[in-house]
UniProtKB/TrEMBL annotation:
The protein's name: Uncharacterized protein
Membrane found in the keyword field: yes
Source organism (scientific name): Linum tenue
UniProt cross-references to InterPro entries, sorted A to Z: Leu-rich_rpt (IPR001611), LRR_dom_sf (IPR032675), RLP_Defense_Trigger (IPR051502)
Protein localization: Cell membrane
Transmembrane segments: 325-347, 353-370
């Protein structure tokens, strides 16, 4: 048997694998299991994937000997339960770990620095706990792909020394207590709801493959770097609720993959970007809270209408270019005449019918004028003496 999904008390986990030595994958997720988390006494060398997530009532500390009992385990998912206490540093003995998930529990204390040295760990999710302390320098290793640490109590100064310079798929440090500046070489970043300060570095434009950048609810100052326009793959950009100033770079309209955008509640000034490409889909909510930002002209090109002394638009720099209007009207009229002439030339029947209706129309108009318009007096006198 390679995979098991079942319900019951979590206590049977201590004996079930021992009686199923060929078990490789053991799934007990979403089963409403409860009780104290226990593992077998004797090693089980075949188990590679253990998932007991989203039960809600499994409690107790994470067993420090879990890597001894399951020496070949590659994926451990403990999320959505009531695990408490500190993360045991002995988890670093699970040298085959690819995935370690323990989000939405009650874990406390610091993240053991040994965890960051796991040689094959690619996904780490410890979000929604009560973890505290600082992140060690160089915690992002070359093999890391996704790191989720949001909604904890992590703090300390976050600088580029925290990173080794390798690319990540996702780094979520939102809703913590970090201070300092931000990293420069991350491909997907969520640093929202911290206390990060300083300017957003120009080097952030080097992240050509980044898809999500969320720096909202921090204390960033200075201008929005125009180099953000180099992030050609970005889909979501949120710089709201900071102290950014200056104008919104016009180059941002070149971000054709952008589907979500906000610079709300900053100190920006000048004009909003033109309503072109993706920016035609963003409404006033993307810009609100900037007192000196002008978003009242949602047109493709800036307009400078002039008014003559009598209060009327002189038509020279107004909303309508009158010369272009007359030219286009004239061309349209000539085109209509040419089309009619071509049709009449090709089809003799239509030509005969055309001239017939033209004659009838002229005759009708003539008698209408004679019958309804006022005849001058001299013509009346001439008619009486005739």
């Amino acid at each position: 048997m390679s995979k098991v999904e079942m319900k019951g008390d979590i206590g049977f986990l201590s004996w079930f694998p021992a009686n199923n030595t060929n078990l490789k994958v053991f799934y007990l997720l979403n089963c409403s299991l409860s009780g104290h988390f226990q593992i077998p006494i004797h090693p089980h060398k075949n188990l590679m994937d253990l998932d007991i997530s989203n039960n809600g009532f499994i409690s107790g500390p994470i067993p420090p000997n879990i890597c001894t009992i399951f020496p070949n385990i590659e994926s451990l998912s403990l999320s959505g339960n009531k695990f408490f206490g500190k993360i045991p540093p002995q988890l670093s003995n699970c040298s085959f770990f690819h995935i370690l998930e323990a989000r939405n529990n009650q874990l406390t204390g610091e993240i053991p620095k040994e965890i960051w040295d796991l040689p094959m760990l690619s996904i780490l999710d410890l979000s929604k706990n009560k973890l505290s302390g600082n992140l060690p320098p160089g915690f992002v290793s070359p093999w890391m792909q996704e790191v989720y640490l949001s909604r904890n109590q992590l703090g300390g100064t976050l600088t580029t020394t925290n990173y080794t310079g390798y690319w990540l798929g996702v780094l979520d440090l939102s809703h913590n207590r970090f201070t300092g500046t931000i990293a420069e070489l991350i491909s997907g970043m969520d640093f929202s709801s911290n206390n990060l300060t300083g300017d957003i570095p120009l080097q952030i434009g080097h992240l050509g493959n980044i898809k999500v950048l969320n720096l909202s609810y921090n204390k960033f100052t200075g201008p929005i770097p125009p180099t953000i326009a180099n992030m050609s793959q970005i889909e979501s950009l949120d710089l709201s609720h900071n102290n950014l100033s200056g104008v919104i770079p016009l180059q941002l309209t070149e971000l054709h993959s952008l589907s979500s955008f906000s610079v709300a509640y900053n100190n920006l000034s000048g004009n909003c970007p033109q309503k072109i490409a993706q920016f035609s889909t963003f409404d006033e909510n993307s810009y609100q809270g900037n007192l000196f930002l002008n978003c009242t002209l949602p047109l493709l090109t800036p307009l400078r209408p002039t008014t003559s002394d009598d209060g009327y638009d002189d038509g020279e720099d107004g909303f309508i270019d009158m010369e272009s209007f007359y030219a286009s009207s004239g061309v349209s009229f000539i085109m209509v005449l040419l089309i009619i002439a071509s049709v009449l030339y090709v089809n003799p029947y239509w030509k005969q019918a055309w001239f017939y209706y033209v004659g009838v129309t002229i005759t009708t108009c003539y008698y209408f004028v004679v019958d309804h318009l006022h005849v001058p007096t001299r013509y009346k006198v001439w008619e009486l003496h005739k």
